[in-house]
């Protein structure tokens, strides 16, 4: 939907139900799967760094706040499939929002760092 140079996107808000997770490490796995993480392994005198990407590495998004971001409508199913794996432990709400064309460009481009 367009309204005077505005494009519909989806605002995604989620909260974790801490008491539903078996441990802090299980909750961390949820966040790592969503946002990704940097893994550092030290063996003897060598240090190895690996980056493990999360699902948001594959989905262009605008971070609004902790646990709140905006995505393009076309990526909603992919993201919701991830949240569905955690549905008993994470509550998710989505809202349609209008973004201007400048912000909409961020929702179709993936930054490569």
Secondary structure elements and pairings:
Elements: E1 6-16, H1 24-35, E2 36-43, E3 46-53, E4 61-65, E5 68-72, H2 76-84, E6 90-100, H3 101-106
Antiparallel strand pairs: 1-5, 1-6, 2-3, 4-5
**Radius of gyration, CA atoms, in whole angstroms:** 17 Å
Question: Would you count the extended β strands for me?
Answer: 6
Number of separate structural domains: 1
Q: What can be said about the biggest beta sheet?
A: 4 strands, antiparallel
CATH fold node name: Alpha-Beta Plaits
Structure description:
The protein has about 110 residues and is of the alpha+beta class. It has one domain: Alpha-Beta Plaits (2-Layer Sandwich), CATH 3.30.70. The protein is about 25% helix and about 40% strand. It has helices spanning about 25-35, 75-85, 100-105, and strands at about 5-15, 35-45, 45-55, 60-65, 70, 90-100. The chain has a four-stranded antiparallel beta sheet with strand order 4-5-1-6. A two-stranded antiparallel ribbon has the order 2-3. The two termini are about 30 Å apart.
Comma- or semicolon-separated keywords:
113 residues; alpha+beta; Alpha-Beta Plaits; four-stranded antiparallel β-sheet; two-stranded antiparallel sheet; 3 helices; 6 strands; flat
Summarize, please.
By secondary structure, the chain is an alpha+beta fold. The protein is built from three helices and six strands.
């Amino acid at each position: 939907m367009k309204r005077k140079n505005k494009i519909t996107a989806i605002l995604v808000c989620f909260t974790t139900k801490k008491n539903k997770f078996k441990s802090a490490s299980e909750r961390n796995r949820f966040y790592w799967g969503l946002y990704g993480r940097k893994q550092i392994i030290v063996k003897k005198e060598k240090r190895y760094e690996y980056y493990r990407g999360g699902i948001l590495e594959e989905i262009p998004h605008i971070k609004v706040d902790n646990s709140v971001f905006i995505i393009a409508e076309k990526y909603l199913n992919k993201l919701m499939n991830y949240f569905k794996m955690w549905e008993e432990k994470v509550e998710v709400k989505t809202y349609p929002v209008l973004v201007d064309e400048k912000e909409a460009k961020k929702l179709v481009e993936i930054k490569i760092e």
